[in-house]
Write a structure and sequence with these properties.
Helix Hairpins; elongated
Length: about 100
Amino acid sequence: MEINVQYFIGVSAILFGIGLFGIFTRRSPLILLLSVEIMLNSCNLALISFARYNGQTAGQTFALVVMAVAASEVVIGLGLVVAMARRKADLDVDHLTTLRH
């Protein structure tokens, strides 16, 4: 039995939904970063599954670009979290304006 592309897209949609739920319900910056990473990984899964289905390598190349963007996003986000922790700021997304001073 061969696994079709529909199964991969279904798993990708479920992962994207979990990430979207995490963004809408949580206020911690770390959880938001984790949710964005889950969403980016679900997009990578969809890209690679379509590339495998079509027999092309463009989706796999684009997935590598998305991974590089995700890595840079994590570095910037964790730098902000460390800056907030050093200033003993509230780790709530609604109060991020305290870093202006």
